[in-house]
Every structure is written in C-alpha cells, then in structure tokens.
Amino acid sequence: MILTETIYQTAVELHRQAAIKIPDDARRAVERIHEREMHDLSKYVLGQIIDNYQIAVEEQRPMCADTGLPRFFVKMGNEAQIEGGMVALERALRQATADATEAIPLRPNRVHPLTRKDLNNNVGVHAPDVDYSFEPDGEWLDLTVVHKGGLFGGDYRMLFPADGILGIQRFFLDSISEFFRRGMSCQPLVVGIGIGGSKDTCVRLAKAAACLRLVGHDNPDPEIAKLEHELLELGNSTGFGAMGLPGDSAIMDVHIEIAYTHTGGMPVAIQHFCFAHRRMTARISRDNQVEYREDPQWFTPYYCREEVE
Fold it and tell me: Where is the Fe-S hydro-lyase tartrate dehydratase alpha-type catalytic domain (predicted)?
C-alpha cells in the first residue's frame, strides 16, 4: 500500500526539484538556441538564462522569482492502493504545496480572484490544480509537479473544418505575435497546441502538451508530427527572439495533442511554457520506494487510445 506520508514527502521534494533545476531536455534546447542565435542582444539574454540555470542549482534556490502556479498531474496504475484513498492523496498534495511554499520558498501567487485574499501558501479553492489519468494493471503512483506561469501565453479559437491547416497556422501566428512582441510569455518557450474535443478538453490538452512532453519528442502520429515541425519553422521565421527581442529562435518546440471533436467544428487552444521550464516526476511503488525522473510519460498509448477495447 502506498502511504500518505510517502506521498506528502515526495510531493514536497518534487516542488523543490521543479523550482530549482530545469529538465535536461529544455536546458539543452536553450543551449542550442544560444549557439545559433545571430542577434547580439538575444544571444546575450540567452546566455544569462543559461547562467541562471547553473546558479540556481549551485545555490539551491528557485531559478525564477516568479515560481508560477504549482499544479499536479497524477497518473495511477489501476491496481494501486493508497492509504486513506483519493481524499487522503489530495490532502497530502495540498499540505505539501503549502509547506513547500514556505520552505523552498515559492512565491505565494494564488489569491481569491475578486477580493485578492492571499493565504500565502498557494492553496485555495481549486488550488493546486490536480489532473488525473489511469493505466491498466500497475500498482504504482506517478506524481508530476509543474510550476507554470498563469498570466499570459494562453489562447483559444473556434475554427471550422474548412479553415484547415491554414486556419491553424494563422491562429498560431496571431497568438505568438500578440504575446511575443510584448515579451509577455518569456521566450524561448514551448508552444503546446490542443486541437479538437470540447473547449475545456482542448485547453487542457494544450497545457499538457506544453508542459508534459519532452522538448524534441514528436507526436507519434506522422501527420501531426509534420504539422509540429511546420509550425516550429514558421514561428521561428517571424524575427522574434528571447523575451520579445529581435532574434531567430523564440520557440524551443511545438507540441500538438488532439481529441475527437464535434463534426461541425475544429477548436484550437494554445498554451506557452516558458524557459523557466519547471517540472519533475516521481513514481511511488507499492513498497513506497520512490524513483525521480524528468519525463512525465503522460501521453501513453492507453491515454491516447482511439478504438473501443
């Protein structure tokens, strides 16, 4: 049985690691962008970002003063047993978030939307967010922490089937130009795109695509992967660089995830995940052993299943 104390301790440590160390896939992508950047000011900013990555690890403190909105992605094997059940799991995640906010520290960003009441612990109504998915057979629990900015870089548009790929490209360019020209989504970044589903599904997929896939990993569907590469090339041909400055490579990667949708529409959502690319995953086994890793392994074949089983 997986103990709630193990869940709590693991969640606190995930917050710490996510806030401090950028995953290797994102760090290497920024280093590659820095090497090929031809604009002096963007190249300088990219160099400072890379230096900041290293300083954060050396000094064991968050690599960005704005530690975003902490959220969890929970993937469970179907046979996993949790002490106290799902309510105990969520209580452990909330307590871990509050305690990590004070101990690391994380900036207490969560406030009441109207009164601006701040409990100073990143916990509140529907906070932290917790998304779930499940896998057959396993007796393990995967916890992924993401610290994602919550202000800019999110967009949605209802397109129609006749808009096709050109419509997606136009929305993509409209969206990145709106945010990039004002430096409002902290480039270089990953653009996550959700296509299909209902509006809520579409936006959720865009966020997961941005945050939970490794930089450089294509969608397994060849047609979707082709569109990812086309949009990446298109986005990096616009003249934007680091933090809205002139440059060659504002985008590390484009990740697309899809859901079957209404026959009359093609909803599209876009989410940005900035160079403060904060995520970390741990697997807790049935004997309460914990293994940390940087790949969330969220988009499994079962999660993306198409046919009736």
Answer: 10-282
